[in-house]
Each structure stands twice: as structure tokens, then as C-alpha cells.
Amino acid sequence: MEKLPKVGLPILIGVILLIIVLAKSAVTLDSGHAGVLYETLNGGVVADKDPLGPGFHIIAPWNRVIDYETRQQEMPEKMSVLSSNGLDIKLDASILYQPDYKNLGRLHNEKGENYVSRVLQPAIRSAARSVVGRYTPEQLYSSKRDAIQEEIFEETRKIVEPQFIQLNDILIRDVTLPPTIKQAIERKLKQEQESLEYEFRLVTAQKEAEKVIIEAQGKADANRILSASLTDKILQDKGIEATVKLSESPNSKVVVIGSGDSGMPIILGNQ
Fold it and tell me: Using one digit for the tens of pLDDT, what is the confidence trace for 155-166?
């Protein structure tokens, strides 16, 4: 085997060193990610320096980049908390969050890469205990769930936003009560529903009765007004008018004899 020329050996070593330097200097960040630059010779991460965005970057080989996902992320969380009367309530929630992009350096310096377990999880648990402790199991199970969700979100947001975490939403997927309490609440809700239906039927029946009374009263008033307006003279004129029309009918033969008690003609015979 031939020996390498004396000039070729340093070149080979130089190429190897160049490859190593380039490998340590080249950094590629995916979409939805950002990098915090750790400067070994400059005291670590400079907090007020903008993070590195997605794409290809060249850095000094003695520095390094800490990769953070900056897209919205979901953290499922199951919690056991106490209601206002001391009953154990289990919440199943989803927390939607992402790091504060502009303050990634501060987030890394103060909380580190494990900021979720160090800040977000304790904050959501503390807020859930505080909020749920103000409500009864019945409120948690039915009418107040949306309000409770909003209150937990607001209390958590106040804790995490000053610590460079952006909280987007908190979704309460499920509220689990002790079985006996849940059954008691369901029975009560069923009874309330039946009571409302019964009251509705009573109100409907009452309105129908009032309608019949009003219609009957209207007819009675109309008859009374009509009776008051019908004098003997008017009745006689109406009778004569009807008699004339009847006598003009081609299907009748009219014989008038005498008069009735009221002075009206008497009509006999027809065909």
C-alpha cells in the first residue's frame, strides 16, 4: 500500500475538520418551529434576541440551537377536584397553548424546555381547584359548565401569560360525579321537567277555557244588543217583507185570509 504524500495528509485532515465544523454549524428548523440560540462564549441565551425562524441557518460551531415548537399544541389533562360541598369531582379537559414566540429567549432562561410541566400543568390544576370549589355538583353537571370552563380559562391565563405562555383555550370534555350524586341529580332534573310539562298543560287548558268564556260572552252581548234593537214595528215590517217574497215564489200558491194576532197575513196552501 502506497503511503499518502506529505502534502495530501494535511489537506485530508483539513477537509475532515471542515466537514465537522459545517455539520456543527448548519441548523435546519422545520415549519412551525423556532430556535433559541445558546451562545457559549456570550453567557448563554440572550433573552431579548429574536428567535431563529424556520429554515436553514449557519451558527458558530461552539454555539447550539434549542428547538421549540411554536404552533398551537394540545395538552390533555385529567384532574380530581372538590366541589363547594366537598365532593370529589373529576374533570377531563384539553388545554390549547403555544409558547410566546417573541419571548422564547426569556421562556427558555426562566422556565426551560419543560415549561409545560413546570408552569402550565400546575396553573391549570390550581385554577380548576379554585373555580370548581365555588360550585355545587348539580351546577357542574348541568347549567354552569360553560361558565366554569370560561372561569378556569381566565384564571389560568392570568398565571401563564406573564410567564411567556400563550393560552388559547380550555375545553372541558367531561365532568364525572360520584354515581349516587349523579343519579340523584338526574332524578331531580326529570322531576323538574315533568313539573314544567304539567304546568304548561295547566296554562294551556286555562287559556282555552278563557277563550270559550270570551266567545260565549261575546255572543250573549250580541244577542242582547240585537234583542234591544228589535221593536214590534221592525218585526212586523220584516214579517211583511218575508211574506211578500214567499208569495212571489213560483212553487207556492198563496191564499190570504184574515190576519194573525200580530196583524200579519196568514198564508195557506203550497205545492
Answer: 999 999 999 999
